[in-house]
Amino acid sequence: MGAADSDRKVVRVPCSSFERLMVLDENRKPISGYAFDFIQTIATYAGWEIEYIPCENFSDCVDLLLAGKVDLFYDVSYTEERSKVILFPDEPMGFEYYYLYSSEDDTSISSGDYASMNGKTVGVTSGTNMIDILKQWCKKKNVEFKLVEYDNIPEKEADLLAGKINLDLEVSMLAKSNLSAVEKIGSSAYYLVANKERPDLIEDINSAMEKVLNNDLYFFTRLQERYFSETVLSHNLTLEEKIWIANHKTLRIGFFDNYLPFSALGKNGEPTGACIDAVREIIKKLGLEDDLDVRFICYQDQKSGYKAVENREVEVMLPAYISNSVKRDYRIMGGKILVTLTSDLAFLEDFGDGRGKRIAVNRHNLMQYYNSRDSYPFSEIVFYDSIQGCLDGILNGTADGTFLNGLRSEALLKPRKYHSLRKAQAQTDYEFHMAFAEDNLGLLLLMDRGLSMLDPAFVNKKAYTYLIQSSSFNLEDFLRDHILLVLLAVAVLVAVLITLIGYRISIRKLEVFNRELRERSETIERGWGNMKSR
User: Fold this and answer.
1) Which of 47, 340, 362, 525 is at 20 to 30 A from 462, Cα to Cα?
2) Phi, psi of 191 (to 5 degrees)
3) pLDDT of the residue at 456
4) What are the phi and psi torsion angles at 389 (to 5°)?
């Protein structure tokens, strides 16, 4: 260990195997999970060296913390009683929701039907705050349960599937897909807590979390989504979703043409692009391939596409930019974010806050129009027939700047004539959504559910595979950009050709000279022969 490492504060943390929260390898060492990533992030900012100590279960971990044999523990809900014996930081690790789960095969218990729950046996995890919350819920709903306590969560789930207990009380983020969520009974924040004798660690946690959140307010939210996006709840449809599926056999998806890498009409007449792939994967994740006839309808003009959603000609339009200014003009709403992109501003002179400036907008790209209007409300909008027209407008002085998709900026500005344009990253990111009619809540919830099952980076990863299709080779631009190299290559080629021609001519002359020399030699030899014969 180096001198720098020896100065780091060693912090002992107990850990037990908890799916998605703390994943251990065969040697019982943590390798992933939300709590693991959370603690490692705090340790990085606080300058800690973490020493993980394997434990059997939650209760054993708490006992070690109370006994002072470890310094921190994770996933602990706040209660006044606990606050007397352990220390809590200012901010929680996250929020957890407690549900009663049944086996998928058990149809005797129904959500909202408390009579069907009365008298059932419920498995609970010993030493958790969930037990008190369940008792309060039972009193409020006038339901009686027989509680069976477990130290081991896998054993509790196994007994549920074996029919030894009727219900399982568990946090939503840990429940597995072979369970069915029956009833939400409560929620609470959970914390990374410290032993009563270690207030210095609480100060470290508060300082570290402040630094993380000041830098990235949604860092921990995205971290939770990475581990908890696909849970039992993601498979339990709401009433609105069930009604939509029951009443629809066809799903019509509108998409924007000429907008690779996100959407376009391919050469074979089929839709293509990262957003198209996302919809297909969502339908697959939801298990609706056999129940829905998905049809894609292409729109050259986004205004027509937005109107089509509003008038129910299609149920979904993508990709779509959704903001309050969009909602003022169209009766549509946006689902969860499909992808977040950087946006670039191309310009010649300093754009400032946009006052008195003219922003060039492709008249066929409604998203660019609304983003420009939202970003610079005091600027004048000037329309052009294409994004190249927008860039040309800046060059010829009829516009002062234009917004570019961050993924396409380099390709769009590559032609030599645009090399004088400057580029700066816009202050706000550019978000793509799926657009729905404002009264189509059932489908919005359904598609958002499917989207939450995808890898958060799904659209971004797919987009990069399509980027090559959105770039084109222009011979004229290539010649302009590499004129010296081209002239040099031509000069070398001409020199080589001249050399080859000269060489060929020399060979020909040498061949003629040798032939004439041989003929003269043969003539002389014949002359001598004749003289000897005489």
Assistant:
1) 362
2) -130, 160
3) 82
4) -65, -35
- CA–CA dist 20, 231 (Å, integer): 10
Model pLDDT, residue 287: 87
E-only strand ranges, 257-378: 264-265, 271-272, 293-299, 316-320, 332-341, 343-347, 358-362
CATH architecture for residues 3-91+192-228? 3-Layer(aba) Sandwich (3.40)
Can you give the residue ranges of every domain in the chain? 3-91+192-228, 94-190, 237-341+431-470, 343-428, 483-534
Distances 418 to 215, 384, 517 between C-alpha atoms, Å: 35, 16, 66
Q: What number of CA atoms fall less than 13 Å from residue 523's CA on the CB side?
A: 6
CA distance 235 to 379: 46
Q: How does pLDDT run across 216-241, given as a tens digit for each residue?
A: 888 998 888 778 766 655 566 766 88
pLDDT of residue 169: 93
**Nearest partner of 394 among 345, 342, 343, 341, judged by Cα:** 345
Which residues, at least 6 apart from 418, have a Cβ–Cβ distance to it below 8 Å? Answer: 346, 391, 395, 412
Is residue 385 within 8 Å of 337, Cβ to Cβ? no
Q: List pLDDT tens digits, range 425-469.
A: 988 888 999 999 999 999 998 999 889 888 888 998 999 888 765
Q: At what angle do helices 199-215 and 34-46 cross, to 10 degrees?
A: 100
Task: Compute the residue count for the chain.
Answer: 534
Measured between alpha carbons, how far is 283 from 253 in angstroms, rounded to an integer? 12
In the chain, which residues have pLDDT < 70?
1-6, 173-178, 229-236, 238-239, 468-492, 494, 496, 502-503, 509-514, 516-534
How far does CA 527 lie from the centroid of its chain?
98
- Decide: helix, strand or coil at residue 379: coil
Q: What is the CATH number assigned to the segment(s) 237-341+431-470?
A: 3.40.190.10
Read off the pTM.
0.61
Considering the domain 343-428, what is its CATH architecture? 3-Layer(aba) Sandwich (3.40)
Could you identify the residue written with the tokens 């009264």? 439
Nearest to 106 by CA among 45, 167, 59, 27: 167
Locate tokens 């309808």: which residue? 297
Rounded distance between C-alpha atoms, residue 463 and residue 405, angstroms: 12
Distance CA 442, CA 444 (A): 6
Tokens of 14: 């107990």
Question: How far apart, in whole angstroms, are the C-alpha atoms of residue 192 and residue 72?
Answer: 7
Q: What angle do CA 117, 122, 126 make, to 5 degrees?
A: 150
What are the DSSP calls for 30-48, one per residue? EEESHHHHHHHHHHHHHTE
What is the identity of the amino acid at 464?
A: Y
Question: Distance between CA atoms of 469 and 472, rounded to whole angstroms?
Answer: 8
